[in-house]
Amino acid sequence: MQAERTTRCPGCGIEFNVSDIAGLPACPVCERPFVAAFAPIRANGLVQGLFTANAFLQPETGRLERIDHAWLWTLLFGCFYFATKGARGQAWVSFFATLFTAGLAWLVYPFFAARLLRRHYVRAGWEPVSVPAGGEADPDALAS
C-alpha cells in the first residue's frame, strides 16, 4: 500500500494531499501561489515561470518589473540592486555576506541574482511573464 504524499502551503501552513491540489495555481485557503515545491506537479503552470521568466507582473496594480541582466547589475551594484528591486531582505543578506567575506560575496552573488529575484517575486504573489528581449510588454495583454 502506498502512503499518500502530503505537502504544506508556505503561506498558511495547512497540509494538503498532493493529489487534491494538483493543477491548482494557488492555495485554496490563502490564495498564495504555489512555488518550487510543486514543480513536478505543475510543470506547465505558474512554477515554470519561476525558472524562465524575465519579468513579473503585479496582479493588483499591473506593474511590470523586469529582471534582465540581473547578474550584471548585481556585479556592478551588489546589495543595492536587490534593494532597488524591492528584495530588501536579500539586500541585507547580501550586504552582511559581503562584509563578512571581505567582498568575495559581491563576486559570487551575480551567479544567483536572477534566481533569488524570481523567488522573491513569486513569493510576493507576482505573476511570472516572458517579455521579448528589448521589447516593451503591454500589461493589459499580459493580464489576460
Secondary structure layout plus pairing:
Blueprint (H helix, E strand, L loop, with lengths): L5 E3 L6 E3 H4 L26 H5 L2 E3 L6 E3 L3 H8 L1 H6 L3 H13 L3 H5 L4 H11 L3 E3 L9 H5 L1
Antiparallel strand pairs: 1-2, 3-4, 3-5
Short description:
The protein is an alpha+beta fold. The protein contains eight helices and five strands. It has a three-stranded antiparallel beta sheet with strand order 4-3-5. The protein has a two-stranded antiparallel sheet with strand order 1-2.
What would your notes on this structure say?
This protein has 144 residues and is of the alpha+beta class. 40% of the residues lie in helices and 10% in strands. The chain contains 8 helices and 5 strands, in the order ββααββαααααβα. It has helices at 18-21, 48-52, 70-77, 79-84, 88-100, 104-108, 113-123, 139-143, and strands at 6-8, 15-17, 55-57, 64-66, 127-129. The strands form 2 sheets. A 3-stranded antiparallel sheet has the order 4-3-5. Strands 1-2 form a two-stranded antiparallel sheet. A hairpin with a 6-residue loop joins strand 3 (55-57) and strand 4. It is globular. The termini are far apart.
Q: Tell the overall outline.
A: globular
Oligomeric form? single chain
Rg, rounded, reads: 17 Å
User: What proportion strand?
Assistant: 5-15%
